[in-house]
Design a protein that fits this description.
Length: 171
């Protein structure tokens, strides 16, 4: 007698910093159903004899954006690869999960009229990865990024010889 069974696989060592995705089922699986952001994959298995099933998991890379100074946001664009979890834009601490090798572009923007982008920090956005307020990353390991925004202050001066006001913004 033949029986079709749905089976699923969940990694046993998942933690807050260690997410996994299903990357491959053994040959016994008729229909790999795919992967899910929580690391669980499933497959349809036809049973007509004793059957062994295997599954392989790979670690996803974590991108942690934290340590916001000032007010602003970081827009996140996945250039290549797959993002499995996380939201964009990031306005506070965010954790995103990517396939190894994914390329990601971060763009920092200060709150309109009040803040401007000042600097990237952390271990990931350094050197050639940075072009102004844009940081390009390859997710070859877990990455930590911080961002600083500076307050913009309005400075108004008055010319003593006239009633004209001069206004400019400084940060």
């Amino acid at each position: 007698q033949t029986c079709a069974l749905p089976i699923s696989a969940t990694p046993t060592n998942k933690g807050t910093d260690y997410y996994l995705k299903t990357t491959g089922w053994g040959l016994a699986c008729d229909e790999p159903v795919g992967t899910h952001s929580n690391g669980v994959g499933s497959c349809a298995l036809t049973m007509n004899a004793d059957t062994n099933v295997s599954v392989t998991f790979t670690k996803l890379q974590a991108l942690v954006i934290s340590g916001f100074t000032g007010t602003g946001e970081v827009g996140i664009v996945t250039k290549t690869g797959v993002k499995y979890s996380g939201t964009s834009p990031c306005t506070a601490t965010c954790t995103l999960r990517y396939d190894a090798g994914s390329t990601v572009e971060l763009t920092a923007t200060g709150a309109a009229g009040d803040y401007r982008f000042n600097a990237w920090g952390g271990t990931a956005c350094t050197g050639e990865a940075i072009s102004g307020n844009v940081c390009n990353l390859t997710m070859d390991a877990d990455k930590n990024v911080t961002v600083t925004f500076s307050k913009i202050y309005a400075l108004t001066t008055q010319d003593r010889k006239s009633t004209r006001l001069n206004s400019s913004h400084v940060s």
